[in-house]
């Protein structure tokens, strides 16, 4: 039991650190997931939860950093009993979220490990129950974990350092871009190719005759067999990775293929009401220079705001150039920055830039 307890202790600490770091890699993605939960709860339990919506980014960094710090505290066995009680509170909270999502099909991905590992609601709930089991083993067998690796002032220093590092990682990712991009629009990906299935769908057919059920690889020509059901054998590879990328103008004409052809610098303005307006002087200068590039880079603007809102906005910030419209979720997946810049070459993502890191034209030309 002693060895088993130590294995559970190690797993509990490591999983919490890993989970927190994955979320801190992309705090905006975690904030979007929190928004989704709060919107669901505000509809189901009352408007109280709407008060959290403006603070999701702060909560994202706080909760993710807390996971890391608690994981470090568990591994150091620093104030272990008190830390375990806090962990229990988190596990019960997360367990409720995942169970509610699974039972009522409210949020299809809990975001437990960010976009690095996608979990279905029931898998997420099962994961929380496993963690709760690890917690129980550790909590009720603390006599096997009496040695503390950091006591007193040294322990406080370690926890303070872990807190500073965790918060620093999240704040930097918030002010720039994720360190690691796990989304379909990451640098190097070909958007056009990801909009196509990797292979043709393969099916199997469940047929029935005289009470006998049989599975066929091809639909039987024998009409005595009656159709019962059909199953796709390769659902993941027969479905495109990107299914919702589409770009339209104000009249509804499709410009998707135009965007995926040649060298394009996309200025993504997700929502004009919350975009950072202070950087548009530099952005305008870059777009003007890009239009004259020897690499024939065409600047385009894509937004998810309404035509009326965007028209007023572009006059306010003196933003010139052709502009199109796309789904808000797509633009949030393309880049975690509002505004943000995406450089494409025939649909291949060559570079992405946060509005805090607006590049020079020479940098764009180097990437092509």
Automatic annotation (TrEMBL):
Transmembrane segments: 48-76, 83-102, 122-140, 152-174
Domain (Methylamine utilisation protein MauE): residue spans on this chain: 1-139
Protein topology in the membrane: Multi-pass membrane protein
Keyword annotations: Membrane, Transmembrane, Transmembrane helix
A biological process from GO: methylamine metabolic process
Keyword Transmembrane: yes
Record-given protein name: DoxX family protein
């Amino acid at each position: 039991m002693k060895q088993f307890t130590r294995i559970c202790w190690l797993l509990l600490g490591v999983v919490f650190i890993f989970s927190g770091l994955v979320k801190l890699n992309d705090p905006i993605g975690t904030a979007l997931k929190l928004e989704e939960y709060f919107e669901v709860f505000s509809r189901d339990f009352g408007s109280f939860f709407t008060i959290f919506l403006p603070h999701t980014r702060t909560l994202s960094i706080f909760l993710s950093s807390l996971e890391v710090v608690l994981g470090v505290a568990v591994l150091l066995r620093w104030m272990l009993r008190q830390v375990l009680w806090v962990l229990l509170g988190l596990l019960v909270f997360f367990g409720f979220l995942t169970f509610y999502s699974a039972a009522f099909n409210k949020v299809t991905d809990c975001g437990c490990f960010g976009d690095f590992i996608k979990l279905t609601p029931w898998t997420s709930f099962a994961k929380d129950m496993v963690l709760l089991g690890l917690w129980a083993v550790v909590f009720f067998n603390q006599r096997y974990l009496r040695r503390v690796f950091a006591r007193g002032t040294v322990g406080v220093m370690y926890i303070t350092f872990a807190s500073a590092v965790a918060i620093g990682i999240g704040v930097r990712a918030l002010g720039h871009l994720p360190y690691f991009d796990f989304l379909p629009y990451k640098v190097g990906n070909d958007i056009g190719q990801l909009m196509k299935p990797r292979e043709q769908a393969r099916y199997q057919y469940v047929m029935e005759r005289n009470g006998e059920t049989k599975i066929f690889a091809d639909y039987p020509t024998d009409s005595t067999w009656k159709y019962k059901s059909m199953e796709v054998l390769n659902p993941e590879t027969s479905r495109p990775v990107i299914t919702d990328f589409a770009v339209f103008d104000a009249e509804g004409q499709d410009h998707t293929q135009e965007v995926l052809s040649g060298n394009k610098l996309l200025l993504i303005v997700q929502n004009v009401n919350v975009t950072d307006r202070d950087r548009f002087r530099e952005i305008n200068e870059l777009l003007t220079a890009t239009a004259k590039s020897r690499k024939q880079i065409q600047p385009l603007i894509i937004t998810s705001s309404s035509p009326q809102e965007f028209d007023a906005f572009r006059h306010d910030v003196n933003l010139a150039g052709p502009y199109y419209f796309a789904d808000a979720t797509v633009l949030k997946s393309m880049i975690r920055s509002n505004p943000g810049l995406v450089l494409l070459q025939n649909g291949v993502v060559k570079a992405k830039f946060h509005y805090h890191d607006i590049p020079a034209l020479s940098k764009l030309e180097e990437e092509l």
